[in-house]
Amino acid sequence: MSLRPARRALLRVAGTQAPERPESADQPLRLVSALSAAGRIARAEGLAGGGERGHELRLPGIGGRYLAGVAAHAHERGWAPLEAAALRDAVEDRSAMWIVCPSAAALRRAGLIEGGRGRAVCARWSAGDWSRIALDVPALAAVAASGGTRGVCAAAVSGTGAPRRLVAAVHADGVQTGLLARGLAASLGVRWAVELLVATALPSGSLMALRERVASAPRCGWCGVPLLGPDCRRCLPGARR
Ligand SMILES: [Zn+2]
Known about the structure:
By secondary structure, the chain is α/β, with parallel strands linked by helices.
């Protein structure tokens, strides 16, 4: 998948739905929002679900929409739901995301950070985990400026009243920026939220090779997801947050 289809998918897949029917090969992967109760419990436990309940996203906002787009893209090309889950997990593990909002309490309630207070708080997804980091606007600007060279780079500003220098920082040349009246700010219950995503892009033409690798990978004996690493990242406690 090249950068362009990925971006189209990002725009086309608006959200995530709770599962209604059992999973089958001809149905798309069912995804559960990272901010839903199930997604938050999964993150707190370091466990991920699957099957009846759907697959919990670990990234909310634009991260979740991009990953839903990746899963939809794979489904359109005939990937089975568990294969799409393995691909989505691999892309999620290789993504970085920053969320800045005016409330540490809101990020704590969402399960993205563990503690602390303050305004203009920054949570970062990196190496498969969320943590609180010091807000460094020039560093965010540098990430946005170079993000496009590393893969897919997208930003979103939601709500009203986001600090202008923060908005300017993520709105670098070549970064697709969405301005949303509600978006993640509404989901978190805060006045504004600024998001920056740097995700791995699937190089054009590589999806077939990736699928062969996924299809021939051993399956987790517990949850059935193809294993792309030594351990199952979906159902081994602590391996996935
Ligand atoms: Zn498993």
